Amino acid sequence: MTDEQTVRIALAGGGAFGAKHAAALKRIEGVEVGAVVSSSLDSARRFAEEQGIGRGVATLEEVLAMDDIDAVILATPTQMHAAQTLACLEAGKHVQVEIPLASSLGDAESCLAAQQRTGLVAMVGHTRRFNPSHQWVRQQIQAGEFRIQQMDVQTYFFRRTNLNALGRPRSWTDHLLWHHAAHTVDLFAHQTGSPIVQANAIQGPIHPDLGIAMDMSIQLRAENGAICTLSLSFNNDGPLGTVFRYIGDTDTYIARYDDLATGKDEPIDVSGIDVSTDGIELQDREFVAAIREGREPNSSIAQVMACYRTLAALEEQLDAASAS
Q: Is 168 inside a domain boundary?
């Protein structure tokens, strides 16, 4: 595929993140969203009409049979990610799957094997790699002007009932470890440039209806000595989202998604870091560029596999603690 050719993308998932990708893709030249799949044909058609893109179809299988679709972005429930990623690759479609790639190490490894066998672009939505805030800090690190001593991260949501980011009932259950911790585990190793060599986790009580731990604490140590302290909760009745505090040898920075401030909460201008200040758009731009250029993308399956190996080790710890 040359730079001039249109990249024709199908979007699976008509929820909150599907809408973010739909908006982002409209801002990328030479991209056409040709089809949308959602939980039902009616919702897919409604989403396509709302977003002014493509056509609504009933199933992913229909999309994978389309000759006029080059790639698929999966913004579907977590438990569907691995199987749908495999289906896309086996059908000869490039694929970007929202975080997490899978909810088990075995499924993640199957996806890696399929990517290696097909040679297609396969990317995971580890958005923190693309947020301008984290890119700015990474540039400071690479310039030798900042070295992480500790990342202190709080990931807090209010999920005592099973609702999505739009406040609508969810058909699936979110997970602190395999979804929300994945962002920080990957980012910590990516930003330090050093593999994680020690990882510990504890969790609070299992919710009687949702069947998941609602509170979790994770400690990480990189080979270069940097540490990470991560607190996660679905019980937090307060400001929602994730705040990253980078504590370094020269400065402290606070990242809130695409925004960045000093340790004293003085805003830092990150508008010149990339072509957009929207991390989702930058993520999608990387996916499209990798397809056009025939190269491995940032946040490829191969690059994020170390994260899922760490998550699996943490899950083993938590399961052992529950059994004792």
A: yes
* Of the candidates 242, 143, 240, 238, the residue with the CA atom closest to the CA atom of residue 185: 242
Q: Is residue 120 part of a domain?
A: yes
Residue type, 248: G
Same-domain check for residues 295 and 316: no
Nearest CA among 320, 314, 324, 319 for reference residue 105: 314
- Is the pTM higher than 0.90? The answer reads yes
Specify burial of residue 189 (Cβ count, 10 A radius: 0-12, 13-18, 19+). Answer: buried
In a domain, 2, yes or no: no
Q: How many helices (H) and strands (E) does the chain have?
A: 9, 14
Alpha-carbon Rg for the chain in angstroms: 19
Q: Which residues of 222-237 are buried (b: 16+ CB within 10 A; e: fewer)?
A: beeebbbbbebbbebe
Contact at 8 Å (CB) between 129 and 187?
A: yes
Q: Give the CATH number of the domain where residue 289 resides.
A: 3.40.50.720
243-296 confidence digits (pLDDT tens):
999 999 999 999 999 999 999 999 999 999 999 999 999 999 999 999 999 999
End-to-end CA distance of the chain: 55
Helix-helix angle 279-293:16-26, to 10 degrees: 60
